[in-house]
Design brief:
Shape: globular
Number of strands: 13
Order of helices and strands: HEEEHEHHEHHHHHHEHEEEEEEEHHH
CATH topology: Alkaline Phosphatase, subunit A
Radius of gyration: 21 Å
Number of helices: 14
CATH architecture: 3-Layer(aba) Sandwich
Strand content: 5-15%
Strand order of the largest sheet: 5-6-1-7-10-4-11
Number of domains: 1
Structural class: alpha/beta
CATH class: Alpha Beta
Length: 460
């Protein structure tokens, strides 16, 4: 099992601040030359942000509304939970059985019903810089873990766990934006390829790292193809992070073969491809297969153990309008919800068995929810007035349901939760926010963004 080194703090003079265009005056050159180290306000905790891209339905996941008319309520029925009076969607029975380890939010809304703007808004927790929460975290905590060299902010799309999944859907731009921050804070994406990344997957022997010519050749290759200094610095940062992972021995975090066959099987979702009939009718169905989701969450757990603080995991295909090339609710849910059910339940149980429940916070959401009424094409449309959201672990209360939706599942009627509170809840899990305000080592503009949101009151 991988271990995380003891957290350390750095003196204020050790965090270089040099004039430049990035928030806080941090130049990319200083970020690359100095190992940005964690300050005392950084908790020894990680976040895994499971982004169900396309807009997950609240009805067939965490708010089935079985008393509503047939055209509104969950088409998969409901599954009982250990929480009295609370049921979840019928196609996630394993997660339902673990509901006493969840904090379910039934009153989250942001009002945005367009994919791109909503996706960016949720990933940013609505902060005005537009930067994803993982980028804010890395800007305050440091680009890499000072003990292991693992990037603090990472992205795990299907191709990150198997090259056979390279054609599966993943809208990277919607979950990796840095807004007004420097592009250096983009999440590290191990699926991006290149010599250094390939060597990391192949577990390069330490003695080979003494020869840095391979790194230099890779950087030179980037320099020839990148037109602007901003992009060039981003490429340098990416390669430097990968090299740090190799030299500090954390490359094993990316090697799933180190897991037992039983663990890999427990997470495996490769059997949940859409049916041949669905693929024949829907040209997009093949790329929306959740084949890699289980291994993505397994890799996310390993990255957290190696010291990564924010891991975004994507699962596409949740845009279920029905008709033409789009999934109907039946089409999409027949493969996606069983995969989520198996992968998420495996993650929750695995993390608990390893004694990591308080150390890893799992967040499950997407860019928005779906309309209360099923449309004439058998689908649900975009709906920003009520969005899917649930948490597990991370020191948050368990077996809690926050808020209540109206009888049609279309809007909050009690305890409305905002994106600012989503940001506050996540950042409160990652930082001692009071201590962060006093830390002079972190860029104060970033600190203000991180501490602006208040946690969901029921989850403090």
């Amino acid at each position: 099992m991988l271990t995380i080194g003891e957290s350390t703090s750095c003196g204020r003079r050790d965090f270089l601040r040099i004039g430049g265009g990035a928030i806080g005056g941090l130049s990319l050159a200083s970020l690359l030359s100095a190992r940005a180290c964690a300050n005392e306000a950084v908790k020894d905790r990680s976040v895994v942000f499971l982004n169900l891209q396309g807009g997950p339905t609240q009805f067939e996941t965490f708010d089935p509304k079985m008393q509503a008319p047939a055209e509104i309520r969950s088409i998969t029925g409901a599954a009982a939970t250990p929480i009295p009076g609370v049921a979840l969607g019928g196609s996630i029975p394993r997660i339902a059985a673990l509901a006493d380890r969840l904090a379910i939010v039934r009153s989250y809304r942001h009002g945005i019903s367009s994919h791109g703007p909503a996706a960016h808004h949720v990933m940013a927790g609505g902060n005005p810089s537009g930067a994803m929460m993982g980028a804010l975290y890395a800007a305050a905590a440091g680009l890499t873990n000072p003990q292991t060299g693992i990037p603090r902010n990472s992205l795990v799309i299907p191709a990150a766990v198997d090259s056979a999944y390279k054609d599966l859907y993943a809208s990277v731009s919607r979950v990796s934006q840095t807004g007004q921050l420097s592009s250096a804070y983009k999440p590290f994406d191990p699926s991006a390829g290149g010599e250094i990344i390939d060597n990391m997957r192949l577990q390069m022997k330490p003695e080979r790292l003494d020869d840095r010519r391979s790194l230099l050749r890779q950087l030179d290759r980037h320099k020839r193809f990148v037109a602007t200094s901003r992009l060039l610095e981003g490429a340098d940062r990416f390669q430097q992070q990968a090299f740090d992972v190799l030299t500090r021995g954390a490359a094993s975090a990316f090697d799933l073969s180190q897991e037992s066959p039983a663990t890999i099987e427990r997470y495996d979702t490769s059997m949940f491809a859409p049916s041949e009939a669905v693929k024949k009718r829907n040209a997009y169905a093949k790329q929306f297969s959740p084949l890699g989701l289980g291994k993505q969450l397994l890799l996310a757990r390993r990255l957290c153990q190696a010291g990564c603080g924010f891991v975004t995991v994507t699962c596409g295909g949740w845009d279920m309008h029905g008709g033409g090339k789009e999934f109907t609710m039946v089409d999409g849910l027949s493969s996606l919800t069983p995969a989520v059910d198996k992968a998420v339940s495996a993650f929750i149980e695995d993390v608990q068995a390893r004694g990591l429940t308080d150390d890893i916070l799992l967040v499950i959401t997407g860019e928005f929810g779906r309309t209360p009424r099923i449309n004439k094409n058998g689908g649900r449309d975009h709906w920003g007035n009520l969005c899917t959201l649930a948490f597990s672990g991370g020191g948050l209360p368990q077996g809690v349901v926050v808020g209540r939706s109206d009888r049609n599942g279309g809007a909050p009627v009690s305890d409305p939760v905002s994106s600012s509170e989503l940001l506050g809840t996540i950042m409160n899990a990652l930082f001692d926010l009071g201590g962060l305000r006093l830390e002079s080592g972190a860029p104060q503009e970033v600190v203000r963004l991180i501490t602006a949101g208040k946690p969901i009151p029921q989850l403090v």
